[in-house]
Amino acid sequence: NYDYLFCLGLSPFDGHAWLVPKPVLYDHVIGHTGQHTGAGGTDTAWLGFPAGSPPDWLHPYGGTLSGVAAILVALDHGPH
Fold this sequence. Notes:
The protein is of the alpha+beta class.
């Protein structure tokens, strides 16, 4: 039971982050990309991509740690 997925990607000289609302995951991940049982799996989902090349639909949800911090502040979840 969650409202957001926090994704963290690490590159040798940079950090990447996204805070994705659960409804967006239903549009792009949950029910679309199975993890343990192949593409037809429905019990788990998998999201994977190169940290420096996220899918276009992720752009509004961060990309940098400071971008995620700004989203959290806008959601009124505090500065941390």
